[in-house]
Amino acid sequence: MGVRKVAVSAGMAFALAAAFGLAGCGSGQHEVIDQGQDCSSCHSGGKQVFDDAAPASAVQSNGTVSVKTSAEQVLVCKPIFVSEDGSKFVPEQVSSVKTEDGSVQVRLSEGTWAFCAQVQGSVKAQLVTVSSESTGAADVEL
Fold first, then answer.
1. CA distance 74 to 93
2. What is the pTM of this model?
């Protein structure tokens, strides 16, 4: 493969990454990864993870979550916590839901979830903790 083909391939890969809002592990929201995959840009399998993180930023829900966004779809993810306090996480995509008129309602089982959407070229995310102890639905805006 010539230098020109490598440069074109690298450029195409960068363009695709930008189109899907991949941000890496910097100060912004982490890229969304496929289920069972490692982060390709920074820590393939070597970073410590925390199973029992209790993120203060998580919205509480009884299982029903209403999401408002300008994005065409919302990604439903399980967060892989890379900080003990839950403030940093890698969203691992479980499913996606198409929005209709800027919103979607999702029903989830107990646990902590991350909702992600690509909005104006960047990934926005919100953590939601579903518990039978919560009394109402969660409202999320991405």
1. 10
2. 0.72
